[in-house]
Design goal:
With about 210 residues, the protein is of the alpha/beta class. The protein is built from 6 helices and 9 strands; from the N terminus they run ββαβαβαββααβαββ. Strands 5-4-3-6-7-9-8 form a 7-stranded mixed β-sheet. Strands 1-2 form a two-stranded antiparallel sheet. β3, α2 and β4 form a beta-alpha-beta unit. α1 packs parallel to α2 and α5 packs parallel to α6. The protein is globular and about 45 Å long. The relative contact order is 0.15.
Length: about 210
C-alpha cells in the first residue's frame, strides 16, 4: 500500500517478511535496542500486547512479523511520531493487528481496564530529566529523556495493565538496573530473566534486557 511521505521522511526495509518502516531523518530513528527487545520478547500465540512508548512502531511491527499475536497497541505521546507509526501500519497492511494511539502512558488506566494485556514491551527513554547531553530537537529530547513519563511510571502502569502471571519485557541501560528492579518489586512485577548486551568481548555492557 502506498503512503504519503513528508519531506524529511524515508522508508526503511526491516529485512523481515517484506516489512517496512517510515522514519524521519530529523527525528529519533530506531537502534539495535529495539531489534534486540523484539527478539527477546517471547509473545505467545493469540496474545494481546501493549507497546509502551512505541515511537515509530518498530518493536510492534517486528513482533507482528515474528509472532502470532492477535493484537498489539502502540502508545506514543508525540502526535507527529504516532502519525508516522500509523502510516507504517498502513504501509504494511497491519491495521487489523497493530493499533497506534496518541497518548501519554500514564493515562492508560483511564482508557483500558486493569489486567487486560497478556504481554507488555517497552523501550522507554533512558536518561533522567536534565541529565546527559540535551538535544535541541524536541522529538529527540522526548524520546531520550524522562520528560513526559518517568521510569517508575512505565512500571507502575504495567502493573495495572498486565494480567496475572503474564509477561513484561524492557530494554534499558545497565546503570538503571537497580532502579528498574526496585520499581518492579515495588509494583509486584517479579524479575525473572536478565540479559546484558555488549558491543564487543571484554567490554562492559551497553544494554540490559529484563523480563518480569
Amino acid at each position: 500500500m502506498e503512503v504519503q511521505l513528508k519531506e524529511t521522511e524515508r522508508i526503511d526495509d526491516l529485512q523481515l517478511k517484506g516489512l517496512k518502516l517510515i522514519q524521519d531523518t530529523n527525528g529519533f530513528c530506531f537502534g539495535i535496542d529495539a531489534v534486540l527487545l523484539a527478539n527477546f520478547a517471547k509473545v505467545k500465540k493469540g496474545a494481546k500486547v501493549v507497546d509502551l512508548g512505541t515511537g515509530t512502531g518498530i518493536i510492534s511491527i517486528l513482533l507482528c512479523g515474528k509472532t502470532n499475536l492477535s493484537k498489539i497497541i502502540g502508545v506514543e505521546v508525540q502526535q507527529e511520531v504516532a502519525d508516522m507509526a500509523k502510516r507504517s501500519t498502513k504501509l504494511n497492511d497491519l491495521e487489523n493487528k497493530f493499533e497506534v494511539i496518541n497518548e501519554n502512558i500514564i493515562n492508560l488506566d483511564k482508557i483500558y481496564e486493569n489486567n487486560s494485556f497478556d504481554a507488555i514491551v517497552t523501550n522507554p527513554p533512558y536518561k533522567k530529566e536534565n541529565t546527559g547531553i540535551l538535544n535541541d530537537e524536541k522529538k529527540k529530547l522526548i524520546s531520550r529523556h524522562e520528560i513526559l513519563a518517568k521510569l517508575e511510571d512505565y512500571i507502575k502502569i504495567s502493573n495495572k495493565l498486565l494480567k496475572d502471571k503474564c509477561e513484561f519485557y524492557m530494554v534499558h541501560r545497565p546503570e538503571r538496573l537497580v532502579d528498574i528492579m526496585a520499581y518492579m518489586r515495588q509494583y509486584k512485577i517479579e524479575p525473572k530473566e536478565i540479559r546484558f548486551v555488549c558491543s564487543h568481548n571484554n567490554e562492559p555492557p551497553k544494554l540490559v534486557l529484563i523480563k518480569g
